[in-house]
Description:
By secondary structure, the chain is α/β, with parallel strands linked by helices. It has 13 helices and 20 strands. The strands form 4 sheets. The protein has a 10-stranded mixed β-sheet, with helices on both faces. The protein has a 6-stranded antiparallel β-sheet with strand order 17-16-18-15-19-20. Helix 1 (about 15-25) packs across helix 9, helix 7 (about 205-215) packs parallel to helix 8 and helix 9 packs antiparallel against helix 10. The relative contact order is 0.12. It binds nicotinamide-adenine-dinucleotide. Nicotinamide-adenine-dinucleotide (NAD) binds near residues 17, 71, 83, 265 and 266.
Amino acid sequence: MTDRITVAYGDGIGPEIMKATMRVLDAAGADLEYDIITVGKPVYLSGVTSGISDDSWATLRKNGVFLKAPITTPQGGGYKSLNVTIRKTLGLFANIRPCKAYAPYVHSHFPTMDLVVVRENEEDLYAGIEHRQTNEVVQSLKLISKSGSERICRYAFEYARANKRKRVTCMTKDNIMKLTDGTFHATFDRIAAEYPDIENDHYIIDIGSARLADSPQNFDVIVTLNLYGDIVSDITAQVAGSVGLCGSSNIGKDFAMFEAIHGSAPDIAGKGIANPSGLINGACMMLNHLGKGDIAQKIQNALLCTIENGIHTGDIYSEETSSRRVNTQEFTDALIERLGNKPKQLVPFANNPDAKPIVIEDPKVKQQTKALVGTDLYLDWSGNDSKELGDKIKAASTDALPLRLITNRGIQVYPNVHAEITTTDHWRCRFKSSDESSVSTKDVAELITSITDAGLEIIKMDNLYTFDGERGYSLCQGE
Ligand code: NAD
């Protein structure tokens, strides 16, 4: 059956590897029709600040399936990441990144590694909500939802089951971020209990990443938050052999996008030497999604044969394991010549004709009773005597919301004063009712007026709530 998909050539090495991938798809008989859209830099430059036109959105929505080459995103300024915009707009909540070694034909310290990173794709620091509110300090908001955590954890277990994987490992930093990462971990534990046939465990992300870099062959499926998933999947792809080898799928309820895990590689763009395998593997994930697993198997086996025959692009070339150093086009020609062949040493891909797309129902989040019990007011204050500030605020606080403490960069500086703490101009002042009894928003408004009348500058407010009596905010040191 002919399927119509949307294709974007991207930039950097994007056009080179996309042309190679489309040649492979056509030669293998994938029977696809393509709608080509332009996204990214040329669109920004034409004045469309989102980097994607309305017509392109309409094409994406019409076709449902998107094969995308990498796009360059400026660092430290400039327009927002279009990759992130597309993932969030189309609800592509699950980013699946399989990383497998091709040893001994591609050098890897971990010849038996074969793992899959399931990365949450819509939340976390990728909201990109950042502010500078004082002379010194900038902040970024980390947003984690219960429903988002449930969706991705459930996807990871369903993926493990469908792909005959044995264990799902969760990685978070919930010893520090007890609410955000804590929500993810608690959700993982709850969902894991529904899958007794799959083993589960949890690592704090720092030691988890260390173990991944040291012994990735001990991992199977890893589920983690957006930022950690982005980082650990690059590590695992690189230690498997090259970031140029791994493909990735971005799956949502109604849409799916397929790509390589790597970026636009500006350092080698235009030279025609990029490894197209990552995007080709991404395209094979797309074929499986479209129910064309037999074609995916044919392409992936030809890719294995090419690698096994030592026909290698520069990123995986070595005197010991390669017979020929090739450019993108020569690699693609060699792969196409091998369509229909099976590798002799590497384990051939086997298509599962019964594979069905994983469908995750929208999670139902239990409604809890919310009570306002206090507020954190953030001040821009350029002094450095926290006692002076604390005494001033204490005098201005109200009976309903007395001052409890002040922190600077998260460490308490009032009422306990430690002279050696280096402070900035960003002060968090916690006001809480006695015994965490409920207060009104009018109480908070009166407090804000009183603090402002005392000549202090409030730059931000985070209210303190309980949910069914359970604290909805983290405690400060010594609180
Ligand atoms: P990168 O992945 O583009 O490159 C990292 C290194 O790997 C470079 O040395 C590069 O030459 C090499 N490499 C990457 N792909 C290769 C391939 N197919 N063949 C051979 N070598 C390859 O990472 P970067 O340099 O940090 O990012 C460049 C740009 O790509 C940035 O603007 C970034 O935002 C963007 N990016 C886009 C995506 C995406 O579109 N999904 C993903 C990651 C990064």
